[in-house]
Amino acid sequence: MNISNTSRIGDVAEFLFDAGAVQRGFVVNRPIHAGTIYDRVVESNGRFYKVQIKCTTKDKKTGVVFKRNNNQPYPIDCVDVFAVYVLYMDTWYFFKNELQRSVYISLNRFKENKENWNIFYEEI
To answer: Is residue 117 part of a domain?
Structure first.
């Protein structure tokens, strides 16, 4: 996939997340206001999860930075799950928001988080 605009890359990741979640039977809601901290709300078995979607496109940089544009971590009450799409691998990683995610995290260290859509069945 050859996409150079970072906003469009984010859009693609969000659409792929929607498709993957719906394919697995989850209900996906999108905020209509662009100023929300989270990108999606996923409903699973009567529970709601606020999801922040991240994307990495570099094949040599298999990691992601978990911080907002203002360099602040995402508050636990504002985001439940981070969904990280690795574009060149066509793979998702999922992480609970634990406030330590304000730095670069190497995805290679978190293989158990790879394609773990079951995170939306867990209590957060």
So the answer is: yes
